[in-house]
Each structure stands twice: as structure tokens, then as C-alpha cells.
Structure to design on (143 residues):
């Protein structure tokens, strides 16, 4: 028999680990700082070009390098923000699962549609006639 309180405690620990965004938040802050530095370098380059005579080829080369650096950092920032949103979504899913599980009695003896819909991510009917159930906690069961 499964110890319900242990399952809830384990699920809370897994939820914390899977949805922790502290490393992502640090990377976002660092990337945002990098974008600010690059923006300032571009402003400085443009001011310098406007006030001093210089080779336009050199200016264009430096500008394109900074532009490429900015685009790369911006892309990284977008990916980090996407990952953070995915983790927030997973947190909502897992919290919903835990709430349903907690509401269930001490022992689940009867079929509960709500609990089933909460814990199941999807069911896949395979070509060989088996069904793979994918649960939101990352467990797959094929029958």
C-alpha cells in the first residue's frame, strides 16, 4: 500500500526541484546586463562615428559585430524566458495534481475521473495495439 503522505512529500520535493527558476533567473539577469553593455557600446560607437572622422568600413565592421553579439544575447534571453514560462506552467500542473491527490480520501478505492484527468498528460494508442499513458509527473506506462 502506498503511503499517501510520503507520496505528497515526495511530490512536493520533486515539484520544487523541477520548477526552481533561480538558475534561470540568474542567467536572465546576466543576459540582460550583457544586453545593456552591448547597447551602450553601440551608442558609444555611433557617437564616436558622428563626432570623429573614421573609416566607414571599420565602423560598419564594429557595428555588425556588436549587432551579432546583441542578437545572440537576445536570442539566449528569449530562450531563458521561454524555459521559465514552461517551468511556471509545470508548477501549475503539478500543484493541481497535488491538490486533487490531497483531496482524495486516505485510500483511493473507487474510480475518480477528476483525479485521473489531473494526473494524466496524454494517452497514446500505438500501432501494435498497446496504449502508453503519459503522466504529468514524467512516468510512462504501456499496456
Amino acid at each position: 500500500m502506498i503511503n499517501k503522505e510520503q507520496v505528497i512529500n515526495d511530490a512536493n520535493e520533486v515539484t520544487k526541484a523541477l520548477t526552481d527558476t533561480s538558475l534561470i533567473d540568474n542567467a536572465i539577469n546576466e543576459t540582460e546586463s550583457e544586453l545593456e553593455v552591448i547597447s551602450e557600446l553601440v551608442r558609444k560607437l555611433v557617437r564616436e562615428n558622428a563626432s570623429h572622422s573614421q573609416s566607414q568600413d571599420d565602423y560598419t565592421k564594429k557595428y555588425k559585430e556588436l549587432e551579432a553579439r546583441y542578437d545572440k544575447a537576445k536570442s539566449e534571453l528569449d530562450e531563458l524566458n521561454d524555459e521559465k514560462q514552461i517551468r511556471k506552467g509545470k508548477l501549475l500542473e503539478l500543484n493541481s495534481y497535488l491538490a486533487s491527490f490531497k483531496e482524495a480520501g486516505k485510500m483511493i478505492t473507487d474510480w475518480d475521473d477528476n483525479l485521473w484527468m489531473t494526473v494524466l498528460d496524454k494517452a497514446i494508442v500505438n500501432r501494435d495495439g498497446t496504449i502508453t499513458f503519459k503522466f504529468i509527473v514524467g512516468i510512462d506506462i504501456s499496456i
